[in-house]
Write a structure and sequence with these properties.
alpha+beta; two-stranded antiparallel sheet; extended
Length: about 190
């Protein structure tokens, strides 16, 4: 096992030598470390503490420095909900414009932009195309999958409904991804 671990660039992380298993047998205390933690790279343990569980095992708690997390990009985008709320406030028609900072229309526009921006944290796992419509369709698909035959619904009808919902979800995902990609390409052309 040691050859395999070293060949794969792994190392046994130093955990401070805490016991992971302990029992008393015939008046003698038996202890062992039956769990290994393999890591790759420069991971370092912080303070290690251990506590006896109700069984014959110990729990080991430690903080580890994993270095940088996943890469992320912070991008500013218009908060359309905030902008809509600002423009549709009760009162005079152009009262929201008068409340903006700045003397010139350009300064007011800059103030509006500043007040209606939100920061988006985009990571490797972000799905810019996922929205509330897809969430609703996903719930419908899962619900139709869990339906039981009964109430005049045969097994074949239930499966047919589930497949239709599933295909609807796939179609929506394809359309949302396509729209998102086209929007992204348009933004890149505008910036470039």
């Amino acid at each position: 096992m040691a050859d395999w671990a070293i060949g794969g660039g792994l190392e046994v992380a130093e955990g401070g030598g805490e016991w992971t298993w302990e029992r008393e047998r015939r008046g003698r205390l038996e202890r062992s470390r039956i769990n290994l933690f393999l890591s790759r790279g420069g991971k370092r343990w912080g303070e290690v503490t251990s506590a006896k569980l109700s069984s014959d095992h110990w729990t080991i708690l430690a903080d580890m420095d994993w270095g940088e997390g996943q890469r992320s990009l912070v991008k500013e985008a218009v908060d359309w909900k905030k902008l809509e709320d600002l423009v549709e406030e009760k009162g005079e028609e152009d009262a929201w414009w008068d409340r903006l900072e700045g003397a010139t229309p350009y300064e007011k526009l800059k103030s509006l932009r500043k007040s209606c921006l939100k920061k988006l944290r985009i990571t490797e796992r972000s799905k810019r195309w996922w929205d509330e419509d897809l969430m609703v369709q996903l719930k419908l698909t899962r619900k139709s999958r869990r339906e039981k035959p009964g109430d005049g619904l045969t097994q074949e009808a239930r499966i047919k409904r589930w497949k239709a919902e599933k295909e609807g979800l796939r179609k929506m995902i394809r359309e949302k991804k396509k729209d998102c990609w086209q929007k992204f390409c348009g933004e890149q052309r505008a910036e470039g």
